[in-house]
Amino acid sequence: MRGAHYLLDLPGVPRLAVVCAYEHHMGYDGSGYPATDPGWQQNVCSQMTTVSDFFDALRTRRVYRDSMDYGTVAAMMLDGAGTHFHPVLTRNFLRILGSRDKVGMHLNP
Q1: For the chain, which has fewer Cβ within 10 Å, the N-terminal or C-terminal residue?
Q2: pTM across the whole model
Q3: What digits encode the pLDDT tens for the residues 50-76?
Q4: CB under 8 Å to 97, separation ≥6 — which residues?
């Protein structure tokens, strides 16, 4: 919520960026945060950001842990498809990344 409020006060920031900052930790099933009123419809751009943010967070090496391999992250995402993640967006995201990897565009150099 703080990020969304910060962006809201910056001139020239598209409103969709504010919405994505606000919603991208919400689950597809309404779980996560921030808590919203029943019936809240998460923006599809926020749903895409949720998918890509989760993938990036686990595939990127952090000071407190190593990156996770693609297969493990993909399995976690598919397990959460329909609950935490939009199922179609998740499968398409992984399909695109999988096809890129097959043609030699490795995702983890």
Answers
A1: C
A2: 0.84
A3: 999 999 999 999 999 999 999 999 999
A4: 55, 70, 107
Task: Please name the residue ranges forming H helices in the chain.
Answer: 2-8, 15-23, 44-59, 70-80, 87-102
Instruction: Look up residue 75 and give its amino acid.
Output: A
Q: What mean pLDDT do residues 6-19 have?
A: 93
Two tokens, residue 25: 């930790």
Q: Which amino acid is at 54?
A: F
Delimit the domains of the chain by residue range: 2-102
Contact 81, 91 (CB under 8 A): yes
CATH for 2-102 is 1.10.3210.10
